[in-house]
Write a structure and sequence with these properties.
The chain is mainly beta and about 140 residues long. About 5% of the residues lie in helices and about 40% in strands. The mean pLDDT is about 95. Bound molecules: thymidine-5'-diphosphate (TYD). The site of thymidine-5'-diphosphate (TYD) has 6 residues, from strand 4 and strand 5.
Length: about 140
């Protein structure tokens, strides 16, 4: 289901030399990958996000450390996902308000996206987001 946020378990190749996990587009995650970015060196107490995307879908992995992803699809019920494993991630459909906070020391958030960066794809005002969900 493409309009529902969900935790996705990734393949794990366990190895005494160190483990390995994989994300393949359109199979492990339900979209084609157009862009990858990552968030790191987050100072204590800071939060990221605070926006929704009109079209972008995302998959977020805690490659290192941990953080919380808080989602709101406009129904007023926030959902909190604590990510702390590098072999699972959170699929975030388009048109979901999302914030990321509670970063641990040395946390690295990998964000895989379905679109190229476009500032016009962002909804950064929560009231505007709620209006858009009602259209
Ligand atoms: P933003 O998506 O608001 O970060 P977050 O959701 O993690 O708080 O991005 C912060 C800034 O970084 C934004 O103003 C522009 C820049 N940026 C790019 O240039 N390209 C990108 O792919 C992303 C994600 C951000």
């Amino acid at each position: 289901m493409r309009n529902t946020a969900k935790i996705i378990d990734l393949k794990k190749v366990l190895d005494a030399r160190g483990n390995l996990s994989i994300i393949e587009e359109n199979s492990d995650i339900p979209f084609k990958i157009e862009r990858v970015h990552w968030i790191y060196d987050v100072p204590g107490g800071e939060s990221r996000g605070g926006h929704a995307y009109k079209n972008t879908e995302e998959f977020i992995v805690a490659l290192s450390g941990s953080f919380d992803v808080i989602l709101d699809n406009g129904d007023g019920k926030k959902q909190n996902y604590h990510l702390n494993r590098s072999y699972m991630g959170l699929y975030v459909p388009k048109m979901i308000w999302r914030e990321i906070d509670n970063f641990s020391t040395n946390a690295v958030a990998l964000v895989v996206s379905s679109t190229l960066y476009d500032s016009d794809d962002y909804i950064r005002n929560f009231e505007q987001f709620i209006k858009n969900t009602m259209q």
